[in-house]
Amino acid sequence: MFIHRIALPFYRSLSRITMPGPRAALLGDRTASSRPRRVLPGTIALFAFLLLFVILSPLLAQPATPHTDPLNLTPEVRQAHILFYNLDYDGALSRFEAIQRANPQNPMATNYLLMTLIFRELYHQDLLDTTYYAHDSFLSSKRDVPVPQATRDRIEQLTNSAIALADQQIKANPNNANAYFARGYARGMHAAFITLADHSFVGAARQGLASRQDSEQALRIAPDYDDAKMAVGIQQFAVASLPRLLRIMIGITGVTGNKEKGLDLLRQCAAKGVVNPVECRTSLSLFLRHDARYPEALAVQRGLAEQFPHDYLFRLEEANLTKDKGDGPGAIAAYKRLLEDARKPDFFIDPRLQMTYFGLADTQRGQNLHAEAAQNYLNAAAQPRCTEWLRRRAQLNAGQMFDLLHQRDKAIEQYKQASAGGGDQSQADAARKYLKTPYTGT
């Protein structure tokens, strides 16, 4: 407490002297300096001593450099990550390909290609709007995700390559924590892909468990390997969220879960990780949202949006969370600000506006603004890169709004489009139902 009382005022006095974030490191620090004051030499000496104490004390409490593969600390990798977090997937992919060519035997170099390829495809499939996963309904979705075969083949090849490279390193040195982490990373990425794209929950569960085991082994070898805490934290929370019977069945195999422990591990990784602190914060926000802890989730998400203001998804998630916590007017304003920024030249890279229009329409629907909601569902469906799955959902919802507005002809037109082939069969089934009987809101 004494140290806090000394250090805190100095931290506050230095609040304008900040370490540049990744984006600032690229663009340069343009913070203006203030006019120096005349102070006594003794004051300078005392200030310098305390400042040195404040700066060095965290370094004395933990290793000078985090435990990670040296590749992860290179400027090339960091710059490619900034492109990735601003959704410039093509730019990030070309950078990571160059890194992989220069490091063909490093499994993390392959993992970065795998990560970028997977997330680019999920983004193109409208699968990175976390509203879809905040509730359990996506588990029973009948959605077909038409991933190109060439993309699938490359994802499989990169996954197998990264695992094989890590296996070789582990065979050569069973205490290689970096290799265990890299193998777990590849397995975790592939598990995420087959979960979201294929709804292959059994296969994903096996890979997710293997990823956790690799990460736990990395932590046994190097307890300060903070990046490895992500897979363990996700599994802890996920297992604890299962129905009681399933938890008991899984517990027989020795796999346990604890929500708060999982969240704490994610917080540790977010604070000290090198490879995946942003992903940990994203997972943390999603899990908090799942448990209706909206103020906490929103605080995490706002931090991401402030750090990466040109990341369309972080901004979208901020609006989604504002909606979910019950602030309809605030969410509508957030969605509209997002659309305004999207109209600015080069502000976002490839913004998938259908997700924003759909979220805005859902919020307006909740505020009984049925005419405005109908129009924005139509706007979502009209976006040129909208997937058939999201287009059918938007058309179904637009039809429901027109029914509530007693505009039956317009409602029938939307139901006919929503009942066409493609998309999610459950949406088509509902549309056919409302072709026969108007939607009444119940």
Number of strands: 0
User: Shape from CA axes?
Assistant: elongated
Count of helices? Answer: 21
For this structure, the quaternary state is single chain
Share in β-strands: under 5%
Poorly predicted runs of 5 or more residues: 1-63
| Terminal CA distance | 57 Å
Radius of gyration computed on alpha carbons: 24 Å
What does the average pLDDT come to?
83
Structural class: mainly alpha
Could you give the order of the helices and strands? HHHHHHHHHHHHHHHHHHHHH
- The biggest beta sheet, please? none
Helix content: 55-70%
Structural overview:
The protein is mainly α and 442 residues long. Helix content is 69%, strand content 0%. The chain has helices at 2-13, 22-27, 41-61, 75-85, 89-102, 107-124, 149-172, 177-198, 201-221, 229-240, 244-252, 259-272, 277-290, 294-307, 312-324, 328-342, 353-366, 370-382, 388-404, 408-418, 425-436. The protein starts with a helix and ends in a 6-residue tail after the last helix. The model is unreliable at 1-63 (pLDDT under 50).
